TrEMBL record:
Keyword Oxidoreductase on entry: yes
One Gene Ontology MF term: oxidoreductase activity
Domain Alcohol dehydrogenase-like N-terminal: 23-131
Annotated source species: Candidatus Solincola sediminis
Cofactor: Zn(2+)
Domain of life: Bacteria
Family from the record: Belongs to the zinc-containing alcohol dehydrogenase family.
Protein name, entry field: Enoyl reductase (ER) domain-containing protein
Keywords in alphabetical order: Metal-binding, Oxidoreductase, Zinc
PROSITE patterns for the chain: ADH_ZINC
InterPro entries hit by this protein: ADH-like_C, ADH-like_N, ADH_Zn_CS, GroES-like_sf, NAD(P)-bd_dom_sf, Zn_alcohol_dh
Amino acid sequence: MKAIELIGPGRVEVVEKDRPEPGEGEVLVRIKACAICTLERRLFTGEQAISYPIVFGHEVSGVVEKMGKGVLSDFQPGDPVVLDLLNRCGECLYCRTGRSNQCSNKFNPGLPILGGMAQFVARPAREVFAIDPEVGFLRASLTEPLSDCVHSLMRTHLSPEMKVLMIGAGTMGLLHLAIVKHYGMFCAVSDVNESKLAKASRFGADCVINAAKDDPVEAVQRAGFDAASIAIVTAPGKEAVEEAFRLIGTLGTIVLYSANPKGVKIELDPNFIHYKEITITGSEGRTEKDFHQAVSLQNSRGLMLEQLISGVFVLDEAQRALEVSLDPSLYRIIVAMDESAITEFETIGGA
C-alpha cells in the first residue's frame, strides 16, 4: 500500500509499505479520505513533534476491507465507516473513569499513533464506527473534529433557552455552530474576518459580530440579548478570551477550546467569577461517547459540512495539500486515498 510519511518539518514522502493484516479483534479499513487538521499542520511545520518518520492523519473515513477473528460488531466488507484514532490505554485512571480523552498514555510510543494517511489501517473494532452511506466519505472524514466539538459543548450543560456565543468562525467554530443549530438554539458568532462571518451566516448564525469593527457588547445588545449563557472560544489569542469575559452573563460558562501560543496571559477579577458564579473550563479531545454522538449527528445529514471542505488532493499531492492547508483563510483540506473522493468533491461542491 501507499502511505504519506512525515520525514521532517515541512517534508512528506509517499512511501510503499506492507498492507497490514487485522489481528484478533481488529478491523482492516481501506481509507478513502483523510482531512488535515491543526495537529497535522503543527507536526508538518515542526511546531509540535512526536517522532520521525511518522504516518500521521487522524480525521478519516473509509470502508471495511477485512475483519480479524473475535470481532463482535456486525461489520461487512464494503461498509462505510469512520475511525476514532485517539489512542487509549484502557488502564490509566482517566480511561477507567470514562475520561479517556485525558489518557495518560495516548502518546506512548508503544501504542499505535495516528496512521490515517495510508491506504489501509488495521485498528481495534471499538475504534471503528459504521456511518450512513449517504453522508459520503468527505463529510464523514469530519466526524472526528465534530466529536471534539460535541465534547466541548457537553462541558456546558446545554439547555434550549441558553444563548450561545462562538468566538472564532474557523472550522472548529463552525462545527460548534452546526451542532448548536441542529438543536435549534440561538447562536451568535464573533470573528474579525468578514468572509468567515459570511460563512457563519450561511451556516445559520443568528447574529454575526465583526470584533474588529464593532463593539461586541453593543452588537449583542442590538441582537436582542444582554449577555451570553455560554461562550466557546475557538480562536487563539488574549483578545478572544477577554471578549468572552466581556460578553458572558451571570451563571454563564466559558469554554477555552483553542490552544494558545506560549506566553499568552489574561487577568481575572476574582470577584467577577465569585459574584456571577461564572464557570471557566477547557476542552481537550473527545471520549468514545462523544464520537458515537458525532456519528449520530452525521447520520442526521442536516449539518451542511460540505461547506467546510476547501479542497481535495490526491495522495501523490500530499506535500502540496499540507502546504495549502496552512492558509488561515481556508477550512479543511482533504487528502483522497483514491479517485472516488475526488469524484465526490466534484458532486457535492465545497467551501
